[in-house]
Amino acid sequence: MRQNARLSNRVNRREFIKFAIGGAAAITLPTYGCSTSKVGGISKTAAEQPNIILIMADDLGYGDVGCYGSKKIQTPNIDALAKGGMKFTDYHSNCPVCSPTRAALLTGRYQQRCGIEGVVTAAKHRHTGMALEEVTFAEVLKRCGYATGIFGKWHVGYNVEFNPARQGFDEFIGYVSGNVDYHSHIDQAGFEDWWKNFQKVPEEGYCTDLITRHGVDFIERHKDEPFCLYLPHEAPHYPYQGRNDPPERLPGGRKGKKAKGKEIARAYKEMVEVMDEGIGRIVETVKRLGLERKTFIFFCSDNGATKNGSNGVLSGYKGSLWEGGHRVPAVAYWPGRIKPDTTTRQTALGMDLFATMVSIAGAKLPVGLQLDGLDLLPMLVEGRKVPKRTLFWRYRKERAVRKGPWKLLVQGKDIRLYNLDEDLGEKKNLTQAEPQRLKALEDELATWEQEVSAGVKLRA
Ligand SMILES: [Ca+2]
Predict the structure, then answer these.
(1) Distance CA 228, CA 252 (A)
(2) Which of 120, 168, 232, 311 could form a disulfide with 324 if both were Cys (CB 3.0 to 4.6 A apart)?
(3) What per-residue confidence (pLDDT) applies to 21?
């Protein structure tokens, strides 16, 4: 390893060595490993490396979960994780839509740095995706001895060249597009989209149940070694289909029955509840195998709900930078490490999970890699405050900046300033009352935009 490598936003490609995988094209893995130093108060030896399970819902809103106040939807298993762990009230996805949130989650950096600023669409099968030189948490954990698996939605690259198996995941079963029919697994553009690593391998079953089943199987097979399981669920993203509903998308481009009106509300509730049931099965598996105290479980959503779901008291929906677009449910669970039944008001973002997982594993980052996200472990296990910072969102013509309780929201020519401690619903615009604060946040935004966009070619 070149210890004197120049620090750069991107890891220099010469830092990588080539590995062959299953006869397929070579993949690249960075040359780094594990640390035995104490991180977050935890001493890491290979035998003691905690397992990591990251479960993410798709389009689940701030008001769609029982412990976040939903009266319509029952989520006893997510609620139990919150009861036994920590519930976040100020956790955010990095973007109000799918692909950019996932790029940030996977890389621990603002998605703007890798050019995934919009949805990687299946519509035209555009040959876009997250570049392989981007370092994912799976690559870092794999190099540190972890078995890595992803079961569910990928959505940061449609083509095989962008497959999760080329981004550090030993095992991938699921779909690469933004959504599939829950039964036929046909994507929005009419293509079958159910993969086992590099191959399309059809599998019968309801999407949510398959994701759970493969997750349980992965835990059982890897119970004797450290593992990192990433379960990006489809629920409750459309198409709105319960377990016993007919397929909407049929082979040959034929159309089946599509849910409308009250059927959508009924299906939506069922979709969340089946996912919750699956989360219960994952937790039950961890307990049954005696892994509960050495397994960190994190649950979150990838963006806010659409109008078919609930964002609780928040304004706005998926696709906007109102709080409802990106403030989402999140729960961390780790018996013996995270104090039960706690609620944190600390602000956290999806991109923080990379640094947090690295810390939990005692892994080393490749030389030159600079994460934007922060390690949340000291906050999770020791109750420390997350260091003060300014956070940024950018999606289409919208920008948002958070600093403490203050939020700058720019939507085209509309500029608003809110104090979220006093006004979570973003009703009272304070731009007139706080001109200096407004100017300072605008300046920070301009600096950030310049910094993240330097040298980045937009891919999506
Ligand atoms: Ca989504």
Answers:
(1) 37
(2) 311
(3) 32
